[in-house]
Amino acid sequence: MNLLNSDDFWQFACQLYSKDDMQARLLDYQNQQGKNVNLCLLLYYLDSLELALNNSQLNQLELCIIEFDEQVLKPLRKTRAYLKANQTEIADYAAIRIDLLNAELKLEKQQQGMLIDAVNKFRLVTYPEPNNIRLYLLEL
Questions:
Q1: Per-domain residue ranges of the chain
Q2: Range 4-16 burial, b when 16+ CB lie within 10 A, else e
Q3: Residue 2 Cα distances to 7, 51, 68, angstroms
Q4: Residue 1 pLDDT greater than 70, yes or no
Q5: Cα atoms in the 13 Å half-sphere on the side-chain side of 31
Q6: Contact at 8 Å (CB) between 118 and 60?
Q7: Are the beta carbons of 16 and 91 closer than 8 angstroms?
Q8: Under 8 Å CB-to-CB from 63, ≥6 apart: which residues?
Q9: Which InterPro entries match (predicted)?
């Protein structure tokens, strides 16, 4: 099997994220269910390529990004939320917000690269109608 490309995944993720209600749906998975948006995007990507993961592979993907999520992305999101709630007291809030959003995007891309590196080590099964996202969302 050909290895998956992180730039192709990034392009797919950006396009999917911008469609209709996808951003709201993904943020709901994140905020209400504690799911990782980049992992969700990867699962949709694999579905589009008709590649299926098993439970063990899904667990490995979660483990490969959990530390980065906890140490980097979640604190950055908390910082952005704090600044937004206190924006009237923050000098140059608009510029700071843009800088933080740009940094967060770069870090999201980094995490997507981590996921692609991990999935490229798997032996994936071609399946005509995979539903990787369902496997993840139903996971306890």
A1: 6-137
A2: bebeebbebbeeb
A3: 14, 12, 27
A4: no
A5: 9
A6: yes
A7: no
A8: none
A9: CHP02444
CA distance 139 to 25: 17
At 134, list the tokens. Answer: 């369902």
Alpha helices in 4-51 (DSSP H): 6-17, 22-33, 37-48
Could you report the per-residue pLDDT of 123-135, keeping only the tens digit for each?
Answer: 988 988 889 999 9
Whether 98 contacts 80, CB under 8 Å: no
Q: Using a cut of 0.90, tell me whether the model's pTM lies above it.
A: yes
Q: What is the Cα–Cα distance from 92 to 122, expressed in whole angstroms? A: 46
**Residue 118: CB partners within 8 Å, gap ≥ 6?**
60, 61, 64
Backbone angles phi, psi at 36, to 5 degrees: -95, 125
Question: 26-64 in b/e burial notation, b at 16+ Cβ within 10 A?
Answer: beebbeeeebbbbbbbbbbbbbeeebbbeeebbeebbeb
| Residue 51, SS3 per DSSP | strand
Q: How far apart are CA 114 and CA 6, in angstroms?
A: 9
